[in-house]
Specification:
Number of helices: 3
Distance between the termini: 125 Å
Strand content: 15-25%
Structural class: alpha+beta
Number of strands: 6
Radius of gyration: 42 Å
Oligomer: single chain
Shape: elongated
Number of domains: 3
Helix content: 55-70%
Length: 177
């Protein structure tokens, strides 16, 4: 019986070592698999970062192009106004009277204002008596005027303009003292 026990113990010892070797091989295989997954994720991350950088560069280029040509629509709308000014300048002064020249200037002015409105440019032209708005008006002088109890515009000195609601130039006005 002692021999059997020694044989079994010897057999178990061999199986134990084989089990340890199998466990070591499994751990090594798992480690290799995890390393391969890690390497694949690093490669994927590098590709995504490169794609992001390329997209960022492309967007910056598109933005620069958009900035360069942003005024193209406005300029195109103003070209007919320039053409009409040139036609007016080309008129023989000896054959044109002041009234027709003035009428031509009014037509070109109206054409210019219409072209600006198409580009969402609006005039800021407060009427006398309107409340003074420091966001849209610039007070250049004060005038004594008892008609208005609160701070109000008494005179428009120069029109202002806004683009999409943002003031480009405030209207210059006189206000009551």
């Amino acid at each position: 019986m002692t021999e059997e026990m020694n044989t079994n113990q010897a057999g178990e010892g061999a199986d134990g070592e084989a089990g340890e070797m199998d466990a070591g091989a499994v751990l090594e295989a798992d480690l290799r698999k995890l390393q391969e997954e890690r390497n694949a994720l690093f490669e994927q991350l590098a590709r995504v970062q490169a794609d992001f950088r390329n997209a960022q560069k492309r967007l910056e280029g598109e933005k620069m192009t958009a900035i360069q040509f942003a005024n193209g629509k406005l300029i195109t709308a103003l070209l007919p106004v320039i053409d009409n000014f040139e036609r007016g300048i080309g008129v023989d002064p000896s054959k044109a009277d002041a009234a027709s020249v003035l009428k031509g200037l009014e037509i070109v002015h109206d054409q210019l204002i219409a072209a600006l409105r198409q580009q969402h440019v609006e005039e800021i032209a407060p009427e006398p008596g309107m409340a003074f708005d420091p966001n849209q008006h610039q007070a250049l002088m004060q005038q004594a005027d008892d008609r208005y109890k609160e701070l109000a515009v008494t005179q428009l000195l120069q029109k202002g303009y806004s683009l999409h609601g943002r003031v480009l130039r405030p209207a210059q006005v006189a206000v009551n003292a």
